[in-house]
Amino acid sequence: MFWAWRCRVVQGMGVRIWAGVDVIRNYERVVAKPAVQPDEQTIRITHQTGLVSTALMSRRDVDHS
Description:
The protein is mainly β. Helices cover 0% and strands 72% of the residues.
């Protein structure tokens, strides 16, 4: 199996809805990769209660051109 290195830039912010419940938004984009790997970016919204995290929405865009 072929494993390639990648460098990602990640930005995130969260909002505390009530005690112990957070909603977190993350954006990540691949900024350095081998030429054979596609460009990729992801937007994810997560609901977190204590140590349990549940994805509410996740969108991954991959450009294979």
